[in-house]
Amino acid sequence: MSFIKLLLVSTSFLFTLGCQSKIKKEIPVTQEMQEVTEVKLTPQELSDYETAYFASGCFWCVEAIFESVKGVKEVVSGYSGGKEKNPTYEDVGYGKTTHAETVEIFYDPNVISFTALVQVFFGSHDPTTLNRQGPDKGTQYRSIAFYKNEKEKEIITSYIKALKDQNVYDGLPITTEVTAFSKFYKAEEYHQDYEKRNPNNSYIKNVSIPRLNRFKKNFGDFLKDNSH
Q: 146 pairs with which residues across the strands?
């Protein structure tokens, strides 16, 4: 993928463990986890902001990327896009549901627009790999851009058209699903802020952090001043 092409579209458009590692529901609190002292907004405070939903591979990676974007107040890892009620990580991660690992993004539209979030979404993953992102394979890792209304749908479809018109992916088909948002299920608590809390995890070191750093290198204008 050409990041130069992708950046031009954005401007003109105004080997290791997989994510499904066999971890237990209860993990010991490490010193690294205790050092994560970021103050979280309350549900009432978050209700003042807009929400957006995207799926683009392991939610550990995706959460960390969107958390680094200015105007984003909170990112929650979870599951969406499927039919089953109250899915669990074990079921979703092992492909036993129709859900995908998804993030819920709370953002300030006065700072960042939905259009810009769509640019972040496409700029931070490969939308041409069907049911796969990096080492993670399966429909639970498929690319989905969710929309809550017709305006958001138009923004997503118009951006995909711009990507195709400018041949950003050198003729490869864009496999991203454009799906009406229905229901989001928050993932288990140990998945929240996973990248920050587990910097020495082998998947985080070898997949999540390099993916985050690639995004930061190519989309510096989107980043918060204190982005780690």
A: 179
- Whole-angstrom Cα distance, residue 84 to residue 27? 26
Q: Which of 80, 188, 59 is nearest to 125 (CA)?
A: 59
- Report the C-alpha gap between 68 and 75 in whole angstroms: 10
Residues 6+ apart with CB under 8 A from 217: none
Q: Phi, psi (5° rounding) for residue 106?
A: -100, 125
Tokens 């979870």 map to which residue? 78
Q: Establish whether 58 is a catalytic residue.
A: yes
Name 147's bridge partners: 180
List the catalytic residue out of 6, 52, 55, 58.
Answer: 58
> Each residue's pLDDT tens digit in the chain (228 positions)?
555 566 556 555 544 456 765 443 434 444 444 444 567 899 899 999 999 999 999 999 999 999 999 999 999 999 999 999 999 999 999 999 999 999 999 999 999 999 999 999 999 999 999 999 999 999 999 999 999 999 999 999 999 999 999 999 999 999 999 999 999 999 999 999 999 999 999 999 999 999 999 999 999 999 998 766
What pTM was estimated for this model as a whole? 0.88
d(CA 203, CA 9): 31
For 11, list phi and psi in degrees, rounded to 5.
-70, -45
